[in-house]
């Protein structure tokens, strides 16, 4: 069985003509017939810490976050980096929304080369540290600029370390996304959200049998119903401010109607037919750091073009209508404030603004 991640590039069977920047051009394969989808969660566990115990100490300007706006796991890092004000400390490289079986690539940059790392493929940074790296090339990844080596792609730990290890570089007014007195509850909530929702939509979309799909579908909507009950009486998942838990749920909800409902067959109801979750998602979307890091055009391009074994034509749908993301949510009536005693982040840096045509129509 081939164990894969949609945001991982993995060699596909057969041969293909060479694509741009030396990539294979071959499409990856995401569904194993007759089997359920099992995500490979063995990531590079090296950490960047204040004490540098893994050989990579916190140091402003030394590291580059490589992400893709299309990817929900990478979108988490974009949100947290912005909420905490780490833009000056950790630079950002963005891959394009599509990739082949070989690697994510820097399609958005002039010449298709990252301007800081000088590489056309993210795989080059993986191979620089681990020659012949045998696993998938995933985003997000953090690269050590002086050596050009990947440091980590352990996405659940990256955002936690942004919150706990990089505090000397947080902006004034940065929120407490992983406060000590709530960590046990956040961890418990995150575990259920990850297994049943974040990964649950993929278990539906990449199911290789009717039975595995049926079970994944039931688990997904059971958890969404439970989350609706929880959020009916509280504004945020844990406590009365935004935490890491909200970041993790949001990136799946933001993609639900645009991709998961149709492409992944998660079609019991759309998000906008689930009143509590829909209001919760809009509340976060309209909070600085969340909606302004969301690129709906790249999201749809990624899923519908890359997953050719699910969508062989590569046609990207025109819908859904996204204008309702900006409608009133009334979640403030439940109490709580997004940033607690802190403040919202300033507007995105000009170079990091999502193009208006990729966002929500305002008229």
UniProtKB/TrEMBL annotation:
Chain intervals for the UniProt region annotation (Disordered): 1-31, 326-363
Transferase among keywords: yes
KW Mitochondrion (keyword) present: no
Protein keywords: Transferase
UniProt site (Lowers pKa of active site Cys): 260, 303
GO MF annotations in UniProt: glutathione transferase activity
Protein name as annotated: Glutathione S-transferase family protein
């Amino acid at each position: 069985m081939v164990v894969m991640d949609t945001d991982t590039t993995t060699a596909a069977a057969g041969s293909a003509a060479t694509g741009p920047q030396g990539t294979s051009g071959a499409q990856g394969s995401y569904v194993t017939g007759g089997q359920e989808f099992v995500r490979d969660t063995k990531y590079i566990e090296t950490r960047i810490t204040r004490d540098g115990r893994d050989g990579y100490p916190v140091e402003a300007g030394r590291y580059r976050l490589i992400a893709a706006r299309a990817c929900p796991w990478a979108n988490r890092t974009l949100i947290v980096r912005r909420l905490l004000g780490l833009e000056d400390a950790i630079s950002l490289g963005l891959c394009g929304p599509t990739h082949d079986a070989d690697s994510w690539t820097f399609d958005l940059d002039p010449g298709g080369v990252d301007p800081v790392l000088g590489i056309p493929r993210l795989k080059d940074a993986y191979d620089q540290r681990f020659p012949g790296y045998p696993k998938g090339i995933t985003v997000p990844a953090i690269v050590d600029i002086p050596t050009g080596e990947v440091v980590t792609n352990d996405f659940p730990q990256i955002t936690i370390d942004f919150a706990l290890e990089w505090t000397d570089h947080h902006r004034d007014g940065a929120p407490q996304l992983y406060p000590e007195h709530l960590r046990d509850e956040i961890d418990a909530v995150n575990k259920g959200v990850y297994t049943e929702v974040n990964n649950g939509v993929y278990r539906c979309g990449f199911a290789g049998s009717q039975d595995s799909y049926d079970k994944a579908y039931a688990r997904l909507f059971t958890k969404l119903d439970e989350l609706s009950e929880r959020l009916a009486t509280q504004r945020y998942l844990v406590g009365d401010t935004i935490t890491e838990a909200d970041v993790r749920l949001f990136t799946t909800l933001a993609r639900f109607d645009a991709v998961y409902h149709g492409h992944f067959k998660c079609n019991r109801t759309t998000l906008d037919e689930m009143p509590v979750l829909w209001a919760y998602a809009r509340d976060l979307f309209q909070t600085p750091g969340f909606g302004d890091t969301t690129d709906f055009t790249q999201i749809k391009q990624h899923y519908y073009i890359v997953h050719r074994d699910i969508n062989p034509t590569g046609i990207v749908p025109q819908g859904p209508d996204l204008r309702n993301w900006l409608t009133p949510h009334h979640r403030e009536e439940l109490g709580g404030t997004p940033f607690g005693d802190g403040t919202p982040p300033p507007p995105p840096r000009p170079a990091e603004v999502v193009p208006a045509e990729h966002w929500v129509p305002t008229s």
